[in-house]
Amino acid sequence: MKILKYIPRIVFIFAVLAASSCKDNLTEINENPNGVDPNSANPNLLLPTVMTGVGNQYLKLGYGRIAGVIQHTQEDAWKDGFNDYDWSEEDDEWRAWYGFLRNNNLLYNRSVEMGYTFHEAIALTMKAFIFGTIADLWGDAPYTNALKGDQGEMLPAFDSQEVIYKGIIEDLKKASSLFANADVSTYATGYDVYYNGDRAKWQKFANSLLLRYYMRISAKLPDIAKAGIEQIYTSGIYLKDAAEDATMDYIGSAPGDSWPTAVAFDVSESNWRRRRPAATLLNTMVAGKDPRLKVWFQPVHVRWVSDPTLKTGMDEFIRKDGVIQNGVKSLTEQELRAEISAGHKFTRHFNPALYKPTHADLFNGPINTGEYVGIPAGMIDPTYYNENPTTGQQVQNQHASQLSYTYQGSKGGLLKARLASASETSFIFAEAALKGWAVGGAEAHYNNGIKQSLQTWGVADQYDAYLKNVTYKGTLAQIIEQKWIAGWTMSTEAWFDYRRTGLPALVLGAAPKSRALPLRFIYSNNELNNNGESVKSAIEKLEETIFSGPRKKNSQWSKPWLVQGTGKPW
């Protein structure tokens, strides 16, 4: 179904290159020798350009630094932007999303001109997804007058978040209506890299995005949200099975079309190695005996053993099958992998009565003896965690878990960019039911959300056993916690849920510069320099908080409209 690998390479030669700012003139496409004449572009050739760009960028956020914000993962080196939220102006991110919009605008215009209703509906869906992401990440943004550089609109005003979300909802309604009867005969097989021309699944995707955005605005515009969610539930047209999730496979032939931590393009394996499970997520999963734990993470390579008979505070050297390996403090990842695969077990012992932290200012214990060990959020220097003998990235921390070897791969299997899921949809309905809205029972939806996520990760056979450990007790905290877990690799949604609910109740470490989780991205320098009046107007509408710091209103800790007046998340 997800057939990106079959797309003819010629498609990517015709990709419309993204320009540098939302005010750039669309006619610059004509100056690109590798581009396509917008007056003759075939919508089929434009589909993968838009869809792969969006899929890649969304995954890079949800598997990348937003996973650090929401404490799915932490990095144990080069961590400032990942663990500590030390962010700067988002020029590259801003350019990327508006670049996708320009390409998508061409797709939409050509689809309308040629009467390709199926492609038109896809373009409307993608427009909503992209603008929704922009509004989610920054707040106010160019919307109504964006993408009109060829009409002389060089300095577009910023629309409010409220206007953008309402526009997104209308576009998705129209897209859903078009999908219901769209002519798919104009679709060329192989170019739709999400659903391969399946209009029924596209309609479910569009309606599920509607659910996402109705719930997003539920605290600010509850009447609109309630009516919209109830209407979609009544229609029965939304993602219901993990097989219907909106996902994108990877080709795996180059860094740009491969999973972000693929070791095929990173000989040192550092991108994969320095990214670790966060203790917040891992400990929650361990406590619930979550079957996804073993799919996503590895046991520690060298496990600590409490040994009251030990004559010193802790072993200097590791033990192989119980025997001290004199002179060997650690092994490389490759050596440990080979030895463990051959059946050997590695440990280090410590005497809890005699143990004293090696660097109490960076790790003050206690030693974690668990089989699975996550990195606590926001450590000053996470390489010291759990008495790692090879700090500073000499070798990997053998006393903390790593991501599954799956995430060293370039493509295939579980390595998919996921834009929306049946699980997310079920948890939205569970939350809506808890509000008293007419969408069925909260417990049934909660259970479905768990089941669909387990299906996604290949452990559905363990659903009954797991559900006994997380039986529904009727709280929003429980719904959001399970949704947060299920959001693995698409943690942007978990971030936006946290922002509007304050859940899960995440606790910061010592390193972040401000004592709260960030709420938004910082407006780009490019826009400030070139469209300053419009940006300044948008910044003025942000709510400065006690955490905003020297950037004042244009800070990652300032509140956009969506959470102003809600008392959330803090």
Backbone structural class: mainly alpha
Task: Summarize the main sheet.
Answer: 4 strands, mixed
Uncertain regions: pLDDT < 50 for 5+ in a row?
1-33
Distance between the termini: 43 Å
Radius of gyration: 25 Å
How many H/I helical runs?
A: 20
Q: Would you identify the CATH architecture of the domain at 4-55 and 90-249?
A: Alpha Horseshoe
Q: Let me know the average pLDDT.
A: 93
What strand order characterises the main sheet? Answer: 6-9-7-8
H-E order: HHHEHHHEEHHHEHEHHEEEHEEHHHHHHH
**CATH-defined fold name of the domain at 4-55 and 90-249:** Serine Threonine Protein Phosphatase 5, Tetratricopeptide repeat
CATH class of the domain at 4-55 and 90-249: Mainly Alpha
Percentage of residues assigned to helices: 40-55%
Signal peptide: 1-18
InterPro entries: SusD-like_2, TPR-like_helical_dom_sf
Organism: Dyadobacter sp. 676
Pfam family, one: SusD-like_2
